[in-house]
Hints:
- The radius of gyration is 14 Å and the shape is flat.
- The chain is built from 1 helix and 3 strands.
- It is α+β, with helices and mostly antiparallel strands and 75 residues long.
- The chain has one domain (4-57): Double Stranded RNA Binding Domain, CATH 3.30.160.250.
Amino acid sequence: MIKVKDYHINIFYSDEDKCYVADIPDLQFCSACGETADIALKEVQTAKKLWIEAAREAGKKIPEPRYRPIYYKVV
């Protein structure tokens, strides 16, 4: 069973949408927004649970957590 906490979450401010956006790259189209980064995070965690639940009910494959951001070391 996949643990919900294993997925990487990106959070960024969108000037176009004028809100914070949180997305989960491993779960296609799983994203949420909020007035603050904390709200966007809370909303995407709910969206993640619902995404996984809907995929299970539909008999679809739930992807393993794979995405890892690239970190650059500034010298």
